[in-house]
Amino acid sequence: MTARTIIVTGGGTGIGRAVAAGFAAAGDSVVVTGRRRSKLDETVAELGGKVSAVDFDASDPAAVTEALHRLPATIDVLVNAAGGNTGMDHPAPEPGDLAAEAAAWRANFDANVLTAVLVTTALLPRMPSGGRIVTIGSIAARRGGGDYGAAKAAIEAWTASLAAEIGPRGLTANVVAPGLTVGTEFFRGRLTDARRERLVGDTMTKREGTTEDVAAAVQYLAAPAAGHVTGQILHVNGGAYLGR
Ligand SMILES: NC(=O)c1ccc[n+]([C@@H]2O[C@H](COP(=O)([O-])OP(=O)(O)OC[C@H]3O[C@@H](n4cnc5c(N)ncnc54)[C@H](OP(=O)(O)O)[C@@H]3O)[C@@H](O)[C@H]2O)c1
């Protein structure tokens, strides 16, 4: 396959890092993005090859605009992996504290929806026919998950309209929706054994998902051969939720 140019938001850690590693191993040029320069530099050093990093906050329109001159002029594959449950970073709002409730909902919307929408909107003009957009959703979109699940559900709706918009240009847009995936910073080190056991128990495979499991699904949707697969949600959760 001819080498391609790949952008992976959230590529410094976890799922995004595994996605970047897969493309780098195939000889592609990969740009990983995120807010923490130090994490990105570590990833670039570890992955080697044609991997570079551009730091910016993908939820901030001005920061995305500023980053454009540091990003490649032509992009074949965009993987929107930036995100996470911002509720992990602060205590749950007190009941009745509507200001805190609103802030929590906005934070998850910004982190999971705006990151993908802003970067995609900014980079679409740089994506020629054959381009692929893959956004990381979540099992939470189908299971509940409050403000985080609602944000990931919005990703699914947005991807459906995006796929229709860009299909005539020969581009596809899909979602990969993981279940429990270890080897990431997602749980901020606070995943209890009891919760881990419950989530593994929900699967048919009776194991945790790995970042490589998710990266393999992204690789498939990003492949030139997947050109007639668009607007879809690919669930990578060991059967914990059946997306049929
Ligand atoms: N792990 C799971 O069990 C699981 C399950 C379902 C879905 N997911 C989804 O998978 C995706 C990847 O998460 P992960 O599990 O790999 O966790 P992770 O290790 O925390 O990765 C999230 C990445 O996103 C980046 N990021 C977050 N907000 C950003 C922003 N505003 N601008 C730029 N970069 C931002 C973070 O880097 P900086 O902090 O340096 O910006 C980090 O590298 C997320 O969308 C998450 O919701 C994870």
Q: In a few lines, what is going on in this structure?
A:
The chain has one domain: NAD(P)-binding Rossmann-like Domain (Rossmann fold, 3-Layer(aba) Sandwich), CATH 3.40.50.
Q: What does it look like?
A:
- The protein is an alpha/beta fold and 244 residues long.
- The protein has a single domain (5-236), classed as NAD(P)-binding Rossmann-like Domain (Rossmann fold), CATH 3.40.50.
- The chain has helices at residues 14-25, 37-47, 61-67, 98-123, 140-143, 146-166, 193-202, 211-222; strands spanning 5-9, 29-34, 51-55, 77-80, 132-136, 172-178, 181-182, 209-210, 233-236.
- Helix 1 packs across helix 8 (211-222) and helix 4 packs parallel to helix 6.
- NADP nicotinamide-adenine-dinucleotide phosphate binds next to helix 1 and helix 4.
- The site of NADP nicotinamide-adenine-dinucleotide phosphate has 29 residues, from helix 1 and helix 4.
Strand order of the largest sheet: 3-2-1-4-5-6-9
> What is the top-level CATH class?
Alpha Beta
Terminal Cα span: 32 Å
The CATH architecture name reads 3-Layer(aba) Sandwich
- Ligands bound here? NADP nicotinamide-adenine-dinucleotide phosphate
Largest sheet: 7 strands, parallel
Overall mean pLDDT: 97
Low-confidence stretches: none
- Fraction of residues in β-strands: 15-25%
Radius of gyration: 17 Å
Please state the oligomeric state of the protein chains shown.
single chain
CATH topology: Rossmann fold
Number of helices: 8
Give the full name of the CATH homologous superfamily.
NAD(P)-binding Rossmann-like Domain
Domain Ketoreductase: 4-179
GO molecular function: oxidoreductase activity, acting on the CH-OH group of donors, NAD or NADP as acceptor
InterPro entries: KR_dom, NAD(P)-bd_dom_sf, SDR_fam
Pfam family, one: adh_short_C2
